[in-house]
Design a protein that fits this description.
five-stranded mixed β-sheet
């Protein structure tokens, strides 16, 4: 983030304190305006010509930079995987409760591992159950893995959108 006298461009596109567009003006004129208003002139991007700049209160600029750092750190962290266990013979109400739990977890930014414990010939029913659940949760998350059937369980992982 480049601010005030460190901006080297001859002209800048200025946005006011309340988001109003002040247009393109010479950098010196924009700096004078910032000094009159007792605020900082912050360059938001160097990729365009003239570079876009904002008038921001001194303390607010630091706070925005700190918030951006925190958001970047949040995005870097891998989502936690939370497991929800089910059985193939689950009642409708219990299934609805588990679906709501999974929605909350996905909206919170974590991944959900849906595990259906099976015994005997319940594999097809477990797979069908997981397919309906993933279809219901498709507006909140996407499948990370396909439905995996192993000896004693059927598993699918869903990541948040």
């Amino acid at each position: 983030m480049i601010k005030n006298e460190k901006i080297k461009a001859s002209e800048v596109h200025v946005t006011g304190l309340h988001g109003e567009d002040l247009g393109v003006m010479p950098t010196k004129e924009a700096l004078l305006l910032a000094k009159q208003l007792k605020v900082d002139l912050i360059c938001t991007s160097l990729m365009s010509s003239p570079p876009p700049c904002k008038l921001i209160g001194a303390g607010q600029a630091k706070q925005e930079a700190l918030q951006e750092k925190q958001q970047a750190r949040k995005r870097e962290q891998a989502p936690k995987v939370k497991e929800l266990r089910l059985t193939p013979h689950i009642e409708d109400h219990d299934l609805e409760t588990k679906r709501q739990q999974a929605e909350r977890i996905l909206q919170g930014g974590d991944a959900v591992l849906l595990v259906v414990k099976i015994s005997g010939k319940e594999g097809a029913k477990a797979k069908e159950l997981l397919e309906t659940l993933t279809k219901d949760l498709s507006s909140h998350g996407r499948k990370h893995t396909g439905i995996q059937l192993s000896g004693k369980q059927a598993v699918v992982q869903m990541d948040p959108l």
